[in-house]
Amino acid sequence: MRTWRLDCARQTLVLTSDGDRLPEVVYWGRPLPAGEDLQTVARAYAIDVTGGMLDRNPALSICPEASDSFPGQPGLVVRDGQGVVLMPRLRFVDAEEGSALVLHFADADLGLRYMARLAVDPDTHMITSSARLETDDPVRLDWLAAPVFPAPHLSDEMIDVAGRWCGEFQLNRTPWSAGIRFRENRTGRTGHEHFPGLIVPGREATNTQGQAVAFHYGWSGGHRMVAEELPDGRRQVQFGHAGTTDAATGTVFETATLYATYSASGLNGCATAFQRHLRDRTVSFPDAARLRPVHYNCWEAVYFDHDLPTLKDIATRAAALGAERFVLDDGWFKGRTDDRRALADWVVDETKYPDGLGPLIDHVHAEAMSFGLWFEPEMVNTESDVYRAHPDWALGAADQIPGRQQLALDMSRPDVRDYLFSRIDAILRDYAIDYIKWDHNRVLPAPDAAQTRGTYALLDRLRAAHPGVEIESCASGGGRIDFGILQRTHRVWLSDSNDALERLNMQHNAALFLPACVTGSHVGPRRCHTSGRTHDITFRAWVAAQRHMGFEMDPRELTEHEASVLRDVTAWWKTNRAWMMQADILRLDSADPACIAEQQLARDGARFVVFAGKAAASEQIAPRPLRLTELVPDAYYQIDLVNRADAPDLSRGSPALKEGVLTVSGTYLMQHGVTLPWTFPDRIWVIEGQRI
Ligand code: DGJ
Predict the structure, then answer these.
(1) Is the CB of residue 38 less than 8 Å from the CB of residue 5?
(2) pLDDT tens, 636-647?
(3) 20 to 30 A from 679, CA-CA: which of 65, 208, 371, 535?
């Protein structure tokens, strides 16, 4: 029996293998004592055999094998060059044990080599894993799972993430039952519909308590997830690229990184591991010391109607509100009068900008803002010079259904990438630009891993040439959010919905995976362009202040009152961003389903801010106390209601927090909770706390 273990302060993962066979995870949970006998753990894990079963149970290994009569989905499905399905029998070759555990297995008869890599980060508590297949002869890969994990038995349901345009990060709860929950994203991008994540809460786990495991597959080309309960009761979780997305035969295949973590502190334990791992290990900001600047984005103010004096006026007003970066969105390049034309012709439009972008950028700089620019590099309109010259650069069949009247470029082609690099590089050289908003507004005609690899290569090349430029990943809002793209970018545009109510909910769910520092959130127009709802400026401003803050309305529409609220909230955000952008976002267990609440806790635990959003009218009259979390029980905290001035006249009583600062213990705040004043729906309370 071979045994291996990975440990951090939060969890132990034990892998054992029977002889030369592939190992299986026989333990994953709270840290085991250092002296635990892993041979015994392996023997104790084995389940019985009874009627109707094979005489021995096939291993639920890191790559379950069909050749082993595994009674579920195998981890590898591969065919030879002629299309004949192979039945690999992978056997041990070698194991490297260092900061990562690297396991080598091979099937000498078939000429296949399989490698699995697993590591645990001692600080973020994230397990990273990936699998690689090499072959002597070219093969066709139908499916390769990243190392397969078991899911806990004491769990009644799983939570995964769906969504749509303007409705990202919707949580699905599906009960476990015999068989498979199979999600496959064949859109060729991460997709609004298919954020590649899975949470398996233990029975009765909540945001703040209980056990849970969670997974994320860091790939932008579409994933497959298999969550399967076998006839014998065991459960497995597989993640990999969507099936058959490596269209060509080849001899080397690799999965993306599968991120996995165990928590004994509810869903929040998993969420903070993802947040920290993304922020501290995955995203590389050009200047880590630079505070996140307040954005202004002009899209919903002007759309394609770019007029220099108007944009200058808007820039001046945005700066006066507190903006520090001005992002010129779609519409600046040659012939781009609407969304039917000009994509791929990345030269400045001389009609709109007769003297180039210089005059606008100079003005933006004079207003003490940096300048960002929108691109959608992977796309082309048939109405464009590039398409007329290179119709063969477009991906997919000539009679395919277009998306937003556009086609995707074939990013696997070096000449396409060279062209895009040369155009974007030229603009970045010509102008002082420190930010790209990188959009992707249609699904691919078919999933294709080579497309994703091509995009990654272009991003990597541009970043090497322009290391000071930050990049935002946008795809009609949140259509490309994953840790793969975030290895190369620095912010995500969570959604095209600037509706504060929708955003409140979406941000809350996205925090299961994303930290505040990468999650863009903008104050939208008074009347939301995508929902038609009208929201008070206090609600719009505070919801944006929960994440990386920005504005996207036409500032000329703001009343003096609205402008002053926005200036104040932005100033508050700037005062607090240094610690808030490093904080853990903890979702609170709200006793009132109408209240969506989170607590952002500083890394040193010395301060926090709670955002308690009222997303609907409550069933009961008065607000139910809101329990806080992860505080030091014996410590005392001074808590203050930052925006008590927002209390409506209908709040007629005097709850203590409405009147002034309170000093109470961590135990009190976590046991009884905070009693807030009454307020309208579509309002939010902001509570600051300091440990004393
Ligand atoms: C979709 C994005 O999500 C919007 O923010 C905007 O950039 C438009 N594309 C521009 O075409």
Answers:
(1) yes
(2) 999 999 999 999
(3) 208
For 135-146, what is each residue's pLDDT tens digit? 999 999 999 999
Q: Is 136 annotated as catalytic?
A: no
Our answer on whether the CB atom of 297 is closer than 6 Å to any ligand 1 atom is no
For residue range 572-631, list pLDDT tens digits in order.
999 999 999 999 999 999 999 999 999 999 999 999 999 999 999 999 999 999 999 999
For 659: left if phi > 0, alpha if psi spans -120 to 50, otherwise beta; the answer is alpha
pLDDT digits (tens, 9 = 90+) for 79-126: 999 999 999 999 999 999 999 999 999 999 999 999 999 999 999 999
Q: How far, in Å, from the CA of 491 to the mean position of ligand 1? A: 15
Q: Domains, the chain, ranges and CATH? A: 2-230+239-266 (2.70.98.60), 295-578 (3.20.20.70), 588-691 (2.60.40.1180)
Q: Residue 609 and residue 612: Cα distance in Å, rounded?
A: 10
Sheet containing 2-7: order of strands: 2-7, 12-17, 24-29
Tell me, in angstroms, the distance from the centre of ligand 1 to residue 439's CA: 7
Q: Output phi, psi for 555, to 5 deg.
A: -65, -15
- CA-CA distance, 322 to 551, in Å (whole number)? 10
Question: What does residue 165 show for φ and ψ, rounded to 5 degrees?
Answer: -55, 130
Q: What does the alpha-carbon distance between residue 183 and residue 509 come to, in Å, rounded to a whole number?
A: 19
Whether 439 is a known active-site residue: answer yes
User: In this structure, are residues 399 and 355 in contact, taking their beta carbons and an 8 Å threshold?
Assistant: no
Q: Two tokens at 121?
A: 């980060």
pLDDT in tens, 11-29: 999 999 999 999 999 999 9
